[in-house]
Specification:
By secondary structure, the protein is mostly helical. It contains seven helices and three strands, in the order ααβααββααα. It starts with 5 loop residues before the first helix and ends with a helix.
Length: 146
């Protein structure tokens, strides 16, 4: 590829990855009966551990700052999660599932298991390796230029 086609190829790659991500999120949200996948990501993260900090949830959900805070506030209002001050670091807040949140997560997991989307994930090995390699390469390129 010559230098004149590199920007066009990069734009096309970015567009395809964004489109695939949006289509997957839309398919999952539809199967869950949710407007977005945010609550599913949060519930999956908090039900698989001993509470999660907001920074851990930001990493798990790819939501940041005010968007994540609004999502957590809405989930608290729906009695799906609760916040507690961390016993080891009083400056930090941890998010935990409520019993209702655990049940909602189990129902979401069941809905996805019976949705047929598992066939998309069945070939995840090759796709995951390719995407992970791309992310690693992008990080390496970014670090080389800083």
């Amino acid at each position: 590829m010559d230098d004149s086609t590199a920007p066009a190829a990069l734009e096309e790659l970015a567009r395809l990855i964004r489109q695939a991500s949006q289509e997957l999120d839309r398919a999952i949200a539809t199967r869950l009966g949710e407007p977005s996948v945010g609550r599913w990501h949060v519930l999956t993260a908090v039900t698989s551990g001993d509470g999660r900090s907001m920074s851990q949830l930001a990493e798990a959900t790819l939501c940041t700052g005010a968007s994540l805070t609004r999502l957590i506030d809405a989930m608290i209002a729906d009695n799906l999660v609760l916040r507690r001050v961390d016993d080891t670091d009083r400056r930090r807040v941890l998010v935990f599932p409520t019993r209702r949140g655990e049940l909602a997560c189990a129902a979401m997991t069941e809905a996805l298991a019976s949705s047929g989307l598992d066939r998309v994930a069945a070939d995840r090995g090759k796709v995951t390796r390719s995407l992970s390699a791309l992310v690693d390469r992008l990080h390496a390129t970014e670090q080389a230029h800083t």
